[in-house]
């Protein structure tokens, strides 16, 4: 049996590998749930836990909201950056988990005079994975931009003249520094949120609520 057909007794959690998975483990532990398989060493995409009623789907970070929206997962953990691009349709977002914290920023080549370009009303070429967030940000400043959609390694774009600026998430700033880029504007702080399928919240409330409560307690402690 390896399907995740959601009946009332099964809870399916969608997580992405890496920092979100790692930072969600302690929250699951607080709810009495231990993931018994390691996604870094296993090729399995559906992981078991010590609770036969709870399983974990490993999906791309940007796909978490989609799985939850359509009810293929009952709940999931996703960054605010990802949720803003997805739009949040069909999702209930009850808890800021304060994990995978970072910021969304504008960065440019070290030699590029961003302030002057903006002040003079230049048309900026902006490369980003976060087109909705970038569009809104520059529209609210009245800056005209040509958005170039990328799917990763945004830091490369200004280095090779693909764009004047990038909008990306930054945590230590090490990647920007290593590529001679400068952070010129913070757009917003980012953290990861618990997202719950709206139908599951009603139909599986009894199973879900204790887990949501434990996540809430564990995430506001630190
Ligand atoms: O990696 P993949 O393409 O599969 O997807 P993803 O990058 O969306 O997933 P993942 O797992 O890397 O990130 C999941 C979530 O973690 C994001 O949606 C953010 O909300 C959050 N987060 C926190 C980050 C970072 N910190 C972060 N530093 N996401 C990405 N980064 C990148 C950053 O863009 C930079 O390129 O990591 C690189 C190193 O950052 P510095 O500043 O520490 O050098
Ligand atoms: Mg990544």
UniProtKB/TrEMBL annotation:
The reaction(s) this protein catalyses: 1-(5-phospho-beta-D-ribosyl)-ATP + diphosphate = 5-phospho-alpha-D-ribose 1-diphosphate + ATP
InterPro entries: ATP_PRibTrfase_cat, ATP_PRibTrfase_CS, ATP_PRibTrfase_HisG, ATP_PRibTrfase_HisG_short
Pfam families: HisG
Compartment annotation: Cytoplasm
Top EC class for this record: transferase
Alphabetized UniProt keyword annotations: Amino-acid biosynthesis, ATP-binding, Cytoplasm, Glycosyltransferase, Histidine biosynthesis, Nucleotide-binding, Transferase
Residue span(s) of domain ATP phosphoribosyltransferase catalytic: 60-216
Entry GO MF terms: ATP phosphoribosyltransferase activity
SUPFAM superfamilies referenced in this protein's UniProt entry, alphabetically: Periplasmic binding protein-like II (SSF53850)
Pathway stated in the Swiss-Prot or TrEMBL entry: Amino-acid biosynthesis; L-histidine biosynthesis; L-histidine from 5-phospho-alpha-D-ribose 1-diphosphate: step 1/9
EC number in record: 2.4.2.17
Signal peptide residue numbers: none
PROSITE patterns tied to this protein: ATP_P_PHORIBOSYLTR (PS01316)
Quaternary structure and partners: Heteromultimer composed of HisG and HisZ subunits.
Family per record: Belongs to the ATP phosphoribosyltransferase family. Short subfamily.
Physiological role: Catalyzes the condensation of ATP and 5-phosphoribose 1-diphosphate to form N'-(5'-phosphoribosyl)-ATP (PR-ATP). Has a crucial role in the pathway because the rate of histidine biosynthesis seems to be controlled primarily by regulation of HisG enzymatic activity.
Classification via NCBIfam families: hisG
Comment field on protein domains: Lacks the C-terminal regulatory region which is replaced by HisZ.
Listed name of the protein: ATP phosphoribosyltransferase
Source organism of this protein record: Massilia terrae
Organism phylogeny: Bacteria, Pseudomonadati, Pseudomonadota, Betaproteobacteria, Burkholderiales
